[in-house]
Structures are given as C-alpha cells and as structure tokens.
From TrEMBL:
Single Gene Ontology MF annotation: peptidase activity
Alphabetical list of InterPro entries matching this protein: nSTAND1
Single Gene Ontology BP annotation: proteolysis
Record organism: Streptomyces sp. SID7499
UniProt name for this protein: Serine protease
Chain ranges of the Novel STAND NTPase domain: 1-162
Length: 266
C-alpha cells in the first residue's frame, strides 16, 4: 500500500520523504487505502445490484470485519483471523472478494476447495478507523467467541469428555455474549455449544426430577405422619369411649345390686 501510494505521488521520478510524511506513514497510507476500498465496495449509493439495500449491505460488511478479527482471552490486542467461506456466507463472501480485488483482504484456496479470507495486514486493525470501531462495538461477541474457542480446545485435549463442556454460569455468560450471533460461528463451534446446551438442559431436568422426588417423598412422609397421628387420636378416643361405656354398663348393673357403689363409679 505505502509503496504504491509513494509511487503514485512521486515527483520527477523520485520517492520523496515529504510525501511519505504527508501520507501519515504506513498507518496513514493503510487508512486511506482501506477507506477508499470500503467506500467503493460497501458505501456505494448508485441503487444498482446488491448496493440498492445500502443498510443491509453495510451490516453484512461490518459482520464480515468482525469475522476477520480475534481476541485472545486476557489480551487487549486483537489479531487478524482467517474466516472460511462457509462461516462468511455468500453475501459476505461477495463483499470479501470485492475487498480482495482492492488488496485489502487476501483470499486463500481455489474454487472447489476449502476457501478462506483474511486481512492483508494486521496493522489494519488499528490503522483503519472503520475496523477499529467495529472491533470496539463487537468486543463482547469477540470475547465470547474467544472464550468458546478456548473451551473447545480444552474439550478436544480432554478427548471430548462431557465434563469439559461449559456449564452453569459460564455457559449462560457465553450464550449472553454470543446471543443472536451463533450463525457467525464455525460448524465445530456451533456443535460444541449445542452439546453444552443439551447437557445443561439434561442436568436441569435431572435436578428437577430429583427435587420433585424429594418433594413427593416429603409430602408422603408428612401425609403418613398426619394419618398415623389421626389414627392414634381416633384410637385413643375410641378407647376412652369404650371405657366410658364399660363403666356406664357396670354402673347400671351395680345400681340394681348396690346403689352406693354405683354412685361412686358414676
């Protein structure tokens, strides 16, 4: 980029330091070239072809930029990332091809093979305002994707043990950061996240079944205790009534034989 600009702005066949400084050096040349390519590929308002829906095209292009950048857990410096055609989708891939024609991106792989695209220079991440702003705006998603990638790598190294799938609060945080953006993950990442979600649902179902069983057992215990207490009270009442009837009968019998004793019993 820089040499091309210097050559275009040369004076008398010479490359001048003053021109280099006016360009803003490497970052300035990258910025101008990137913004020009972006305007030509994404910012057109000619009403023709895919550019007719300018807002939708811009949104797709910005999502493309997010796919070309990655962050490492614990690191503040974003790095360029290789994005596959499958991840990008056809609309974003067409934009990537247009940007690659202007040497902003680099395409990898031949038609019919696995194809990918990446930034031509990592310096574009900081030198190109549009990309830098998109990285800042998508920080939560980029961090979530980085954490998911870290978890995926750990799971692979553990022979895909279910115990290494994200769960609980960590899984909820991941889903929050990746919300409505899972389509931008690669197939392996989506499969990994799906496994984690299914396992978490199964665990929640298991916990609900367990607590339901505990609640039922407690209810049965309380019910049985209440029943036994009621039976005990009924039995005591029946016993008391039986004694009362026996005494009454005895009193009646004695009344006929010995009125004094009958009065004492009554």
């Amino acid at each position: 980029f820089v040499l091309s600009e210097l050559w275009r702005l040369k004076a008398g066949g010479r490359l001048l330091t003053s021109v280099y400084e006016e360009m803003g050096g490497v970052s300035g040349a990258l910025r101008r070239r990137a913004e020009q390519a972006w305007e030509e590929c994404v910012g057109r308002k000619d009403g023709a072809g895919p550019a007719a829906d300018a807002e939708g095209r811009t949104e797709e292009a910005l999502r493309l930029l997010s796919g070309l950048v990655r962050v490492l857990p614990g690191s503040e410096a974003p790095l360029r990332r290789r994005l596959t055609r499958e991840e990008a989708g056809e609309e974003r891939w067409r934009i990537a091809e247009a940007l690659a024609e202007r040497r902003l991106l680099v395409l990898r792989g031949d038609p019919g093979e696995a194809q990918s695209v990446e930034l031509a220079h990592e310096a574009l991440i900081s030198a190109w305002p549009t990309l830098a702003h998109q990285v800042a705006a998508d920080e939560e998603f980029l961090v979530g994707r980085a954490e998911l990638g870290h978890d995926l790598d750990r799971w692979r190294k553990a022979d895909r043990s279910p115990d290494f799938l994200p769960d609980g609060l960590h899984l909820r945080n991941l889903r929050h950061r990746l919300r409505d953006r899972e389509a931008e993950l690669n197939p392996e990442e989506r499969d990994f996240l799906g496994r984690a979600q299914r396992r978490e649902r199964a665990r929640r179902t298991g916990r609900r079944v367990k607590w339901t069983a505990v609640a039922l057992a407690f209810a049965l215990f309380v019910g049985l205790g209440t029943f036994l207490l009621h039976q005990s009270r009924v039995g005591a009442q029946q016993e008391a009534e039986g004694r009362s009837r026996s005494l009454s009968l005895l009193s009646d019998q004695l009344a006929q034989q010995d009125p004094v004793k009958a009065a004492l019993i009554a």
